[in-house]
Structures are given as C-alpha cells and as structure tokens.
Amino acid sequence: MTIPIRELELIPLSPGRLGCQAAEQQGGGIRLSFEGTAESPDRPQLTRLLEDLHAESRKRKLSDVWVDVKELKFLNSSCFKDFVTWLNRVLELPVAERYRIHFVSNPSVRWQQGSLHALSSFAPEIASIE
Amino acid sequence: MNDVKVRTDIGTAFIELTVLGNLELVSSLREGIVSVLRGIGASEELLGRLEVAVHEMLENAIKGSVDKRARVRVEVYQQTAEVHTWNRANSFDLRVLERSLTGFDSLENADAQYMKVMKEAALRATGSGLGLQRIRAEAEMTVAHDIDGTLLHVVAKTAVKPKAAGARP
Predict the structure, then answer these.
(1) A37, A111, A117 ranked by CB distance to B48: nearest
(2) Which positions in chain A touch B56 (Cβ < 8 Å)?
(3) What is the pTM of this model?
(4) Model ipTM?
(5) With contacts defined as CB-CB under 8 Å, which chain A residues touch B23?
(6) A93 touches B: beta carbon within 8 Å
(7) Are B137 and A118 within 8 A, CB to CB?
(8) Are B161 and B145 in contact (CB under 8 A)?
C-alpha cells in the first residue's frame, strides 16, 4: 500500500505537460511518477519540486527515492539540469546522510537511455537505473 | 511560422521552416517534425536522437536570436541525417558559442566532456550549457557551426543505422 504525498505532486500546466504523482512506499522511501513532457515552461515547477523532495527526504531520513519516468515522453536540457543539480546536492551531503535514487525507465523511449545513463554516470554512488 | 517546406519520399525527408519564436512553440514543432519522419519510416532509434537535436537546437536558436526569428531544417536520407538551425546572434553570444563548441566536430571524449559540463551546470544558477552536449553525447551526433556576419548556423549530423530485421517501421 502506498500513501500519496500531496505536497510533492505536480498538476500539469496544460494537457500533456509535466505532471507528477508522489507516494510514500511501503517499507519506506518516496516514489515520484512523472508523466507528460518536461520542457522550459515546466522548469519552475520542476525546480521547486526537486528542492522540496530533497528537503522532505532529508527530514524523513530516507535511504531510497524512486523516480519513475516511464511515462515521461521528453525532457529538455533545462529540466535535465534540475536533475543534475539535485544529484549534486545529494552528493554534497556527508556519506551517512545520502540517499539512493533509483530511476525507473522505459527502455523503448530513446531519450531515457541517454539521459538516465548520463545521470547514473554522473553520480554512480547514489544513482541507478531500473 | 512561415516559409514551410516539406518534401518526403520513401526513407527520405527534407523539412524546413522559419519561426518567429517563443519557446512554447518548440514542443509542437518537435512533435510535428517527428511525426513527418515517422511517416517516412524512420526508425524509433533515429527519431529519438533527432528529437533531442531538433528541440535543443531550436530552443537555443530562439533564445539566442536578436530578432526572435530562427530557421530549422531537418534532412534525412538513406545513410545520413542532419539538423540545421540559423539565427542572428549578438557578438557576445557568438564568442561564447565558439568557445563551447570546440571539439564538437567529433565524438571523441564526448562522455568525459559531458560529465565535466554537468558538474559545472550543477553549480550554476542560470543557463544549463547542456543542450549541445546532450546532442553530442546522448544523441551521438557531431555538431559544427559557421558564422557569416551575425548569422549563426549550427548543424548536427549522424549516420543512419540500418534498421534491424523485424524492427517496427
């Protein structure tokens, strides 16, 4: 059973744009499930969401966060940068306070292959692809 | 949007359009171009790479254009695919771009350079500087440019891999 976390949800600005559902996982951890497309107009929302997620993860002393992008059809470089910034923030924490980030992907979506590989290569200590 | 030119044949396409831009348009244009290319039977693998190039280059061209105009052209042939953009830029942007594109005409060290720029981007408040890096490292396309006065032309190129037997059209 999962419990929704309303504070970490994103309502799309318009149909097809970036949206996000968030839930507390059974056994601990948070799972974000993205949908739509993440492009420049969506950037302010995404920036704020990842900042809030980082704060919430630290507050709850989480060890794992899942980021499901299976339904995310496109991600531009501005939004990609937000994920890089987030990973870097986690890397800057003392090792004992870091949490692991699991990207849940759809291998048939081409951008996910390249971008998630880049993110996991950037922060191999904390990021992995499932 | 005006000056739209579209020519297609089996496995080949030439698409060119000029936009008087705002960034909201980029998404629709990317999707439209991908839709045309899907119609000529381009592989999903190629489409995925070209959509990254079209999006990042067109967004850069609109952002960097002094008159808000940008032109994009996509050419797909049996063995090669190219994405071109043109825009008028100021001299400062042109100098920055010239520095950042050094070595982009090959894929050598693309991943290592990408990691370095990602680290820099993570610490910078504005601008990602990642768009052209993504094209090179993720979409595996070489990127070159030329400048004629204030007119900036950027081109990303790749070879078209033959479709695997039994692959979806």
Answers:
(1) A111
(2) 76-77
(3) 0.91
(4) 0.89
(5) 39-41
(6) no
(7) yes
(8) no
Are the CB atoms for B5 and B21 separated by under 8 Å? no
The closest of B136, B158, B153, B157 to B70, measured between CA atoms, is: B153
CA distance B161 to B133: 21
Q: How many CB atoms lie within 10 A of CB A94?
A: 6
Q: Which residue of A has its CA nearest to B53?
A: A76
Return the number of other C-beta atoms located less than 10 Å from residue B162's C-beta: 10
Residue B57 CB contacts under 8 Å (≥ 6 apart), including other chains: B72, B83, B85, B131, B132, B135, B154, B156
H or E segment and range at residue B144: strand B142-148
Judge whether residue B169 has pLDDT over 50.
Answer: no
CB A22 within 8 A of CB A32: yes
Beta bridge mates, A103:
A67, A129
Determine which helix (DSSP H) or strand (DSSP E) holds B87, and give its type and residue range: strand B80-88
pLDDT tens-digit series, residues A72-107: 999 999 999 999 999 999 999 999 999 999 999 999
Do residues B116 and B136 lie in contact, with contact meaning Cβ atoms separated by under 8 Å? no
